[in-house]
Design goal:
Uracil-DNA Glycosylase, subunit E, about 230 residues, globular, about 40% helix, 6-stranded mixed sheet, alpha/beta
């Protein structure tokens, strides 16, 4: 039932046009294209989550990249952030391969589901509050459908904030004030443990703020917490 319901939710996400600014931005990026994708048809639509419908670990990112997920049609696919994320997931046995380059590349996730706080690429990677709020109900519904999830890995402070908002909207007793985001930060809310991780953006990986070992440790910690639940 959960797989079918998730597929129906994915179809609804893909058809979404709630945010005019984001619709215009993603479609303009699909028309202009990046040189690496010049001969390919861009996806150019919102991105649903994907992964194991029985996952105990949910990964929440910020938003698709205008020339990553937007052309490929899968979150964290076709950009450097995804290279880091899926390599770490592969090394910790959450993914069957270390790369994600296309929707049909054979990638599958085990015990993990990947989604985003905002489903369209925002200009400058900065969604507006109204755009965040338009997308949060999709995360609320994913949490309801992913009944086995026990750990939510939040990639960056924006995902951390949205995860708390989604849990409050789900009826969970999320604490106020919200605990501050930090790499490795944890917070238990009902059946969930939120786990903070620096976002694998080039700003963090090129400067050494986030290392491969640091990201692996987060996923190893996520599995330990899920195993105890």
């Amino acid at each position: 039932m959960s797989a079918l319901a998730l597929a129906e939710l994915s179809d609804e996400v893909i058809a979404c046009r709630r945010c005019p600014r984001l619709v215009a931005w993603r479609e303009e990026a699909a028309r202009s294209k990046r040189a690496a994708y010049a001969s390919e048809q861009y996806w150019g639509r919102p991105l649903p989550g994907f992964g194991d419908p029985h996952a105990r670990v949910l990964v929440v990112g910020l938003a698709p990249a205008a020339h990553g997920g937007n052309p490929t049609g899968r979150i964290f696919t076709g950009d450097r952030s995804g290279d880091w994320l899926f390599a770490a997931m592969w090394r910790t046995a959450f993914a069957n391969q270390p790369t994600s380059v296309a929707r049909d590349d054979g990638l599958s996730l085990r015990d993990c589901y990947v989604t985003a706080a905002v489903r369209c690429p925002p200009p400058g990677n900065l969604p507006l509050p109204a755009e965040r709020d338009n997308c949060t109900p999709y995360l609320v519904r994913e949490l309801a459908l992913l009944g086995s999830v026990r750990v939510i890995v939040c990639l960056g402070s924006f995902a951390w904030e949205v995860a708390f908002r989604a849990l409050r909207a789900s009826g969970s007793a999320a604490p106020r004030p919200r605990p501050r985001f930090a790499h490795g930060a944890t917070c238990e809310i009902d059946r969930f443990t939120l786990l903070g991780c620096y976002h694998p953006s080039q700003q963090n990986t090129f400067t050494g703020k986030l290392t491969e070992g640091m990201m692996e440790e987060v996923f190893e910690r996520a599995r330990e917490i899920a195993d105890r639940s």
